[in-house]
Amino acid sequence: MAKEKLTYENDIAFDVVLEDDEVPDYDILVAGFPGTGLIGGIASEQLINTLDLKQVASVHCDKFPPTAVIFDGIPRRPVRFFAGEKFLLVKSDMIIPPNLTANLAETIIDFALDCNVEEVIIFDGIPKSENAEKSVELEGERKVWGVLSSHKAKEGAEELNIDIISRGAVSGISSSLLLDANEKEVKAIGMLVEGNPNMPDPRASAILLQRFSEYRGIDIETEMLLESAEQLEEQYAQMVDQANKAQDDMERKSAHPPLYG
Questions:
Q1: What distance, in Å, lies between the first and last C-alpha atoms of the chain?
Q2: Which of 43, 98, 201, 212 is deepest in the core (most CB within 10 A)?
Q3: Are 232 and 202 spatial neighbours (Cβ–Cβ below 8 Å)?
């Protein structure tokens, strides 16, 4: 393995270690990290599995929580770069600690620039509004919002058919990626789909992938995500129903305590 670069910021060291001697050039980087509903993580995993993306590099940092992801019995670093015919992708299998997001984002954007990336697409989610329907939603009922690194990314957002957030806040690694892209004048678009913050939401991930598929002209399999979404939603509904029944039963018992005499 070859060490691509070493970044020191605030006494935190990041190594990007290549699987081979070099990574081909790409015009676009996709970033998917676990956040609301694990939406970004699920979407990136689906891209890896269905488009047969190969790992090309991993990010090492001694400040990361001690975590190894196991594939076929072999440990892997949790933050990794993958590549295929169409694009470069970065994903994480752990939540990035807040004190490391800015430095990791800088490392990712710098590596993307080394690969001649011109555009970054970030998959993430935002919690559904409280008045959103609790029933299973169709794709058209899920809102996808956009956050831009700069005004020059607006054209891409229009092609993605997403509405730009005029005022608000974004947190976590997604915000750090957008900020660093802004400072380095890299076109970046954060795609934020409304999702369930209380459970994994593959339905929301499928919506992001369908938009990205149309944007890049790539055939991406999302049917299995919709099927797993239906199973999760059914399981969740059963859990809620059981919890409600248990709560009702407890309230009845407390209202009518047993008599002793």
A1: 79
A2: 43
A3: yes
3-state secondary structure of 144: strand
Q: Please give the full DSSP string across 207-238, using - where no structure is assigned.
A: HHHHHHHHHHT-----HHHHHHHHHHHHHHHH
* Total number of residues shown for the chain: 261
Helices (H), the chain: 39-50, 101-114, 154-159, 172-183, 202-216, 223-255
Kindly calculate the radius of gyration of the chain based on its CA atoms and give it in whole angstroms: 21
Structure tokens at 36: 């609301």
Strands 88-92 and 28-32: parallel
Q: What is the pLDDT of residues 101-151, one digit of tens each?
A: 999 999 999 999 999 999 999 999 998 765 444 434 444 467 899 999 988
Q: How far is Cα 135 from Cα 65, in angstroms, rounded to an integer?
A: 37
For the record, the structure tokens of 123 come out as: 């998959």
222-227-229-232 Cα dihedral, nearest 10 degrees? -150
> Encoding tokens for residue 83?
């590549």
Tell me which residue has tokens 């979404």. Answer: 229
Ordered domains of the chain (ranges, CATH): 2-223 (3.40.50.10900)
Question: CA 172, CA 158: separation in Å to the nearest integer?
Answer: 25
DSSP 3-state of 125: strand
Structure tokens at 152: 């020059």
Share of the chain above pLDDT 90, in %: 43
